[in-house]
Amino acid sequence: MILRLLLALNFFPSIQVTENKILVKQLPRLVVYNNEVNLSCKYTYNLFSKEFRASLYKGVDSAVEVCVVNGNYSHQPQFYSSTGFDCDGKLGNETVTFYLRNLFVNQTDIYFCKIEVMYPPPYIGNEKSNGTIIHVKEKHLCPDELFPDSSKPFWALVVVGAVLVFYSLLVTVALCAYWIKSKSSRILQSDYMNMTPREAGPTRRHYQPYAPARDFAAYRS
User: Fold this and answer.
1) Where are the disulfide bridges (predicted)?
2) Tell me: the pLDDT tens digits for 42-100?
3) Residue 197: per-residue pLDDT
4) Domains in the chain: how many in total?
5) Rounded to whole angstroms, how far apart are CA atoms 70 and 55?
6) Is residue 88, in this structure, part of any structural domain at all?
7) Which structural domain range is residue 158 located in?
8) CA-CA distances (angstroms) from residue 22 to 8, 59, 123, 188?
């Protein structure tokens, strides 16, 4: 009888330690190619009707809180980040999924999930998992993606050049037409001036220069 009591006393503390810890499983590695990733944290604990806190931490020492959610399953809580990460998430059956967007290459690191039961007492947290290494790959853009609007200035210059050429041709044609019209007007005015009748005036008489008549008879005598 005494032996059974001793065994029971030794057994209860071990149960209490096990129940006050939540086991969390994560994928060991995720590779990100499009700056977005979904990290699922599976836990072995019934959080129904309990106030809990699920969070995601970055770094070996979990120094940066990436994303967090507080609440319970009676309503859909909101995921948020106080450190500048673009995050969202979803609560499932024994799963919390964190959606991370707009990740940069320098944010490649190891990420840890943390599940905590805040109410009712006692406080229960999870054993630190092995974490997930999120490797953010650099996105290599094609030339068209690097300069998506490079063709717009070219076509703008083409349109402006076409308008200027059209305007120049229009001005040239107008000047030529004006020059031809003015030239024709001058020719007509010249013809009209040549055809204008002259006024009748006194007829000039042509006089022979006066020279005295010579008397050839005087020379003969």
Assistant:
1) 41-113, 67-87
2) 998 877 778 899 999 999 999 999 999 998 777 778 999 999 999 999 988 789 999 99
3) 55
4) 2
5) 9
6) yes
7) 142-185
8) 23, 21, 11, 111
